[in-house]
Design a protein that fits this description.
This protein is an alpha+beta fold and about 60 residues long. Helix content is about 40%, strand content about 15%.
Length: about 60
């Protein structure tokens, strides 16, 4: 899912979802609060990885889908 879909999925603003994403650490490495895949300069998020990340922080995951 892309940045906008991530924000909607976890119920936060796009601006806040960007703050969770990769942050340049000055070298080629970046840090991210949330699991991210970077392709062609765009961030993508795996729904399964996001669910695991939410569980690790005690977030609510609905099995209703």
């Amino acid at each position: 899912m892309n940045q906008e879909e991530l924000a909607e999925y976890i119920g936060i603003s796009v601006k806040d979802s960007i703050l969770l994403g990769p942050i340049s650490s000055g070298a080629r490495w970046s840090q991210s609060e949330i699991p991210v895949i970077k392709l062609d300069g765009r961030n993508y998020y795996s729904r399964l990885a996001v669910d695991d990340w939410l569980r690790s922080y005690g977030g609510f995951i609905s099995d209703a889908e």
